[in-house]
Automatic annotation (TrEMBL):
Signal peptide, first to last residue: 1-21
UniProt keyword terms in alphabetical order: Cell outer membrane, Lipoprotein, Membrane, Palmitate, Signal
Record-given protein name: Outer membrane protein assembly factor BamD
UniProt xrefs under InterPro entries: BamD (IPR017689), BamD-like (IPR039565), TPR-like_helical_dom_sf (IPR011990)
CDD domains: BamD
Organism placement in taxonomy: Bacteria, Pseudomonadati, Pseudomonadota, Alphaproteobacteria, Rhodobacterales
Amino acid sequence: MARSKISATMMAAVVASMTLAGCGGSKKEERENLDRFTAEQIYTRGEYELENSRKPEDAVFYFSEVERLYPYSEWAKRALIMQAYSNHRAKNYEEARGAAQRFLDTYPGDEDAAYAQYLLALSYYDQIDEVGRDQGLTFQALQALRTVIEEYPDSEYARSAILKFDLAFDHLAAKEMEIGRYYLKRGHYAAAISRFRVVVEEFQTTSQTPEALLRLVESYLALGLNDEAQTAGAILGHNFQSSPFYQDAYSQLRGRGLSPEARGNSWLSNVYRQMIQGKWL
């Protein structure tokens, strides 16, 4: 969360002054008379609402008013980043993205630009649904997280962005695996292979790769393509020999009188050669 430079004592004093000024009137009347207060006072009231109200939207209102009433002030700049944060807390993700993007467009060189970009990325990342749903937001999260990593590598948000990027990347691979398993169970082996191949070629650094190689062994064995099955088993054994997926693949191959070894000249053979040369995984 963005850190306030206002002390707790000052906050209490400002909140008290606003409360006294509004006594005898409703909250609606208080909001309608905000132009009587300074940018600092309204901003501080927003912070108070953010910390004490169960509705982050209340804080959004005050931060928005700072931007509206004092658009060129330093407080408006602070209020804009706090709008993004408060909207994110309220799970108003589109509004959070909008505020974060406005901050980046208006203050691209500001010290809080990295935080604004991180909030923008989070607004996508925190909407990533279960594996079985459309993954459009996952792609957008990856793009926004990559921006944090590449443009703000020395910021305090870069490490968190890297971790979330890896998780989102794994999420996409898991989607491919789910579809591949669906086809495999129904005997649509060619369609299954195309999904598992995507994981092996494009998501090889994810946790899904060992299972993808096992499922390739199963699919190719089912089609009678033993060279491809053995090569998939060889890649699995070379990189994940201690994995239970390799033990399963090895048993299936041995059950057919086969062994995990690179054979033939398929796309898997190319992957195997690249791996041996240290260019894969």
